[in-house]
């Protein structure tokens, strides 16, 4: 089973990038990488001053055994801010609450001033929370700028080819909330 098959069996369609787009990111974008073994899959972009974790999947058989924490600790050792997108809490989906608790337990905090909403192909809006961890005191304005980079360079990479549109124009999908 490919890393993409593993991701597509877990992540909702509206969150998962097109397989071709992901393969082109891995092949053609110098910052974008995938690492996997039998216990996990992680795709990420390693920029000079921050890391964006696009997808992190821990295999069901190893969940709760520290695998996800070990993966995050490996990234933390690089000494850069780490950013990721997390589904907002949903009382009807207890997995959302477990994911949030996992990231918070690992020192991530929600960027409460950043609103991030993308629309899928049929126009349905999907809001994600932006979480971050940093070895230094970093402002949420800085996180917002880094998320704009993620939108431009990762989410919009070859987007016209795969979706017929840019899917994450920063001025349209990111907003600062006071």
Your description of this structure?
- Pfam families: Acetyltransf_7 (PF13508).
- With about 180 residues, the protein is α+β, with helices and mostly antiparallel strands.
- It is built from seven helices and eight strands; from the N terminus they run ααβββαβαβββαααβ.
- Strands 1, 2, 3, 4, 5, 6, 7 and 8 form an eight-stranded mixed sheet that branches.
- A hairpin with a 5-residue loop joins β6 and β7.
- The protein starts with a helix and ends with a strand.
- The model has no long low-confidence stretch (mean pLDDT about 95).
How many structural domains?
A: 1
- Number of distinct helices: 7
Kindly state the number of beta strands.
8
SS content category: alpha+beta
CATH topology: Aminopeptidase
The residue fraction in helices comes out at 25-40%
Distance between the termini: 45 Å
Rounded to an integer in angstroms, the radius of gyration calculated over CA atoms is 15 Å
Rough shape? globular
Give the DSSP E fraction (strand runs of 2 or more residues).
25-35%
Any idea of the CATH class?
Answer: Alpha Beta
H/E element string? HHEEEHEHEEEHHHE
- The fourth-level CATH homologous superfamily is Gcn5-related N-acetyltransferase (GNAT)
Give the integer mean of the pLDDT values: 94
Question: pLDDT below 50 for ≥5 consecutive residues: which ranges?
Answer: none
InterPro entries: Acyl_CoA_acyltransferase (IPR016181), GNAT_dom (IPR000182)
Domain N-acetyltransferase: 1-137
GO molecular function: acyltransferase activity, transferring groups other than amino-acyl groups
Protein name: GNAT family N-acetyltransferase
């Amino acid at each position: 089973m490919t890393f993409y098959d593993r991701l597509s069996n877990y992540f909702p369609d509206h969150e998962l990038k097109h397989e071709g787009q992901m393969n082109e990111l891995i092949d053609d974008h110098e910052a974008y990488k995938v690492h996997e073994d039998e216990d996990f899959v992680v795709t990420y972009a390693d920029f000079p001053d921050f890391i964006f974790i696009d997808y992190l999947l821990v295999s069901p058989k190893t969940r709760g055994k520290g695998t996800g924490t070990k993966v995050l600790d490996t990234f933390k050792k690089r000494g850069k801010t780490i950013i990721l997108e997390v589904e907002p809490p949903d009382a009807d989906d207890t997995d959302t609450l477990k994911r949030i608790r996992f990231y918070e337990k690992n020192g991530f905090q929600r960027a409460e001033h950043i609103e991030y909403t993308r629309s899928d192909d049929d126009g349905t809006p999907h809001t994600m929370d932006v979480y971050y961890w940093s070895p230094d005191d970093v402002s949420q304005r800085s996180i917002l700028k880094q998320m704009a980079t993620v939108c431009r360079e990762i989410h919009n990479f070859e987007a016209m080819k795969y979706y017929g549109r840019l899917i994450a124009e920063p001025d349209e999908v990111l907003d600062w909330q006071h």
